[in-house]
Amino acid sequence: MGVEQTYLDQLNSNFDLGIKLVQKKIHKLEEEIKACERYISHLEKNLQSYDEEVNQLKDKCKVILGELKKCQDHLELKEEALVIQDNRIIQLEDIIDKLKSRIQELSKSNNNHSEEEQKNMAIPDILINIARALDRVESYFDGDTSFNPKNTLDGIRILLTTARELMQRNAQDAINMQGLYRIANDRINGLRNDLTTTRNQCLRRAQLLTLAYNNEVNERRRWWQIAQDRQTNGQRIALRKQNRINVLIGEKAILQRINQRRKAEAELAEFNRAFVFNRYQKWKGRELNSRQIILNLQNNPPGNMATIQDVMHTLAPLLAQLPNYDGQEPPDVYYQKLRNINEMARPLAVAGFNAVARCQVMINKMTGRFAPVPANDPYAVGNPAINTEPLFLNWLREKYREVMVGTNRSAIFALVNEKFLETDTPDSYEKRIKPLVQAMPDADALPYLFNQLPSDLEMRVRIATPATVIAFFTDLRNIWHESAGKRIQAHTIAPVNYKAQPQKDDFKIRLARDLAYTGIGTDDATLENFIYEELKKRLGGQTAHVRKSPFTPRSAYATKKVVRKVVPSKASSKLVRHCSVCGNAGHTKVNCPRLKRTKKVNYVYQNEEEDPEDSEDSEEYILEEDSEEEIEDDNEDDIDDESRNCYALKKKWCEVEYL
């Protein structure tokens, strides 16, 4: 009853702790709900401030629109001023056009006066004639002898005399006209100066008006851009504020849902607390009843409960199937088999089948050199009693090493030749090496194992300092998995492939040269086509080969079988010949099918056939792979090795069909 009271006290304390935890959780949830409410109120205040900012931005937009209207009015006034200036510019352009027309009139009067003088003057015409005469003299010097140069020179002298008289006559006229020309030049220069002054003034006014117009346009564009930017910024800010308001509204809705969920969880926690307390009361009663039933069963065991005899009866067939141990396999493997058999009795839940009984089952399976098993382990420190499965395994390992120490020489030789290969994993390596080191002491086996590893793995395993073979394999597995992605690349010797150099077969080349081949290409396809075409021209008939190509390998068992195929033919008035062997018409004894003779010419099986007009039947030869029906001479194999022309005989070839 003391135990029951202690258990009840423990259950009560656990229940009180559960209630306190639930209360703390409820308190925590309430604090979170209050924090959420505070955050919601803060968001509402932020929304109000955002609304005020939006209203302020709307007012700023209205002010900007008023300024834009004022700018538009100002621009309209400037446009009117620009219209007036444009009219002034047009008037100035009309004045300039009038001045230009006057200048043109003056220039025309000067031109007319000069034309009259030119008409009165004959000197230019004389000079032109002199120039032409000089050109003719020059052409005479160049080789033109179609005229007399003396006549040309006389004409030049006459022209020069006339020009001299005219020049003397016009010299006085020039002196008289010099004064008039000076007066005219003074008047022209004065008009030109006036025209230049007027033009400069007009250009200056036009530049000023253009500059004012461009400044006005740029100013108007700048104010329009400012207005557009302010309007766009206002819309963008308003849109951003609206998006922020929407986000805050969404967060508010989410926080409200979280608040509702927290309240629901608090209510559910309260309900669960009451429900757990009720279940606790029920399980408390069930526990008390179970303990009472256990006590009753311990004091009064029923007759149908399993005993140690039932356990041994269950394990007997399994133990009989497993042969007694005499060192035929490693101790770890045999121990695992015994352990599996012992685990088969665990579902029976027999208290008598404890660790000592399990160990005794394993001891009873020892025989030969491993029997009898001593009561204490002589190999362990302190000589403990062998009464558990792990202690039995330690004794079995040491006994196995002691018994097998005389036969481990071959294991050492095999162990020396082993290596951790590139394709190995720790499991495959352990499976291959462990049987070799099972009968060796750990201190003797570890140096061999270290030497079998690659350099990087060996260094890391040596740093781990495993004390036993089992620890060595465990450390090797851990280190190998840690270096995943950086596997050990073993140094392997690449095999040397000796490629045989094929010898050039010049049979086709020599055959093509015999047939007067003059081409350049020496590949197989070109030579074969030339040979076939040339042989068709020379033999004058269709050739057919029993093999698809005379240049490809053939079967050594190819024979020829004659199949009789009757073809109806027209009646012939010629004399019909009959075979003297079989008596049939259409062939003679030379090619009678009953003789079953084949003829081989170099590389081709062939047979002669008479003209279709002289035979009523046609024969079709079928190539078969039949070693039993082959009829050849003994020296044909020697003949095949010689290089001979397969087209040495000119014959008519028969039709051949391949199977």
UniProtKB/TrEMBL annotation:
Residues 579-594 form the CCHC-type domain. Residues 606-641 are annotated as: Disordered. The keyword Cytoplasm does not apply. Transmembrane segments: none annotated. It comes from Rhizophagus clarus. It comes from the Eukaryota. The keyword Cytoplasm does not apply. This is CCHC-type domain-containing protein. Residues 19-116 form a coiled coil.
